UniProtKB/TrEMBL annotation:
A Pfam family matched in the record: Aldo_ket_red
Gene it is expressed from: yvgN_1
Organism: Limosilactobacillus fermentum (Lactobacillus fermentum)
Sequence positions that bind substrate: H112
Keyword Signal annotated: no
Organism lineage: Bacteria, Bacillati, Bacillota, Bacilli, Lactobacillales
PROSITE patterns attached to this UniProt entry: ALDOKETO_REDUCTASE_1 (PS00798), ALDOKETO_REDUCTASE_2 (PS00062), ALDOKETO_REDUCTASE_3 (PS00063)
Active site: Y54 (proton donor)
EC number(s) from the headed UniProt entry: 1.1.1.-
Protein name: Glyoxal reductase
Enzyme class: oxidoreductase
GO MF annotation: an example: oxidoreductase activity, acting on the CH-OH group of donors, NAD or NADP as acceptor
Entry annotated with the keyword Oxidoreductase: yes
Lowers pKa of active site Tyr (site feature) positions: K79
Protein family per UniProt: Belongs to the aldo/keto reductase family.
Positions of the NADP-dependent oxidoreductase domain: 27-272
Amino acid sequence: MELKDLTSAYTLANGIAIPAVGYGTFRTPATVARQAVKTAIEVGYRHIDTAAVYENEEAVGQGIKDSGIDRDSIFLTSKLWNTERGYDKTIAAFEASLKRLQTTYLDLYLIHWPANQKQFGDQAAALNAETWRALEDLYKQRKVKAIGLSNFMPHHVAELLKTAKIRPQVDQIEVHPGWTHQEEIKKLQAMGILVEAWAPLGGQGATVMENETIKQIATAHGKTPAQVVLRWEIQQEVLPLPKSVHEHRMRENADVFDFTLSPAEMGKIAALPNMGGQCADPDEVDY
Ligand SMILES: NC(=O)c1ccc[n+]([C@@H]2O[C@H](COP(=O)([O-])OP(=O)(O)OC[C@H]3O[C@@H](n4cnc5c(N)ncnc54)[C@H](OP(=O)(O)O)[C@@H]3O)[C@@H](O)[C@H]2O)c1
């Protein structure tokens, strides 16, 4: 499918359109998020990604209101934090997010991290199943247009599918050069799941954008390293969620639809070594 601009969308397995580049808000403090989200919408972003744990949902909701754009023209995602797993707590956490976001529905709600065996032993799979059952009910009640996962590797998804009645439509995982998850992306896509890239530019502490190979490819196309990295993700049909609080970078990160990386360039970027970032293994995290 040809993507032309920030309003170009993929179609999720349940028929819902999801704009193909989102706007991230992790580490955007509430004091900044209101104006940043409004600016992002003015720049043209129509897909906003937040989470309860970012502690900026209220400001994100206010920024959407300030933009003057109809709520229906925005694709809004939030996520269930790890302390709220389980059926009842999930329903309550969802309602609290809606309230903070000052909206009556979400476009996408994600389980932020799978409960892992390291923390929950044999109970991990049952806890994920119960949490998912709550998302299914929210979906059936039309309080959310699509439901999905975050940081679930294919083996977590396979476990969940043993009990799921509704298949997850999205999985948001860490993807950037040096932390490519290429096999996992292919497996998730083969399951009919749209993959979103968090930390698409490498996130905090990464040196992805200073990499010489990426810089050379950028120069060859008359683009910036950030644009090349986002394009590399888009060409894998992975949906990036770049975060910036600066308008010029919001514009830069949106200007990724007028060039194409060759298969050789795609391969060179995929082969780059780890350049830092969060590089989190969902089976090893303690949160
Ligand atoms: N599901 C999860 O577990 C999870 C985890 C992490 C993130 N996320 C989501 O994914 C989004 C993106 O991840 P992220 O925020 O960690 O990292 P990111 O988008 O890869 O990188 C953001 C960093 O890059 C800088 N930046 C942005 N555009 C740039 C450009 N064109 N040139 C140079 N630097 C640029 C930003 O600084 P400035 O803001 O100062 O411009 C910020 O420091 C998050 O905001 C969040 O919505 C989800």
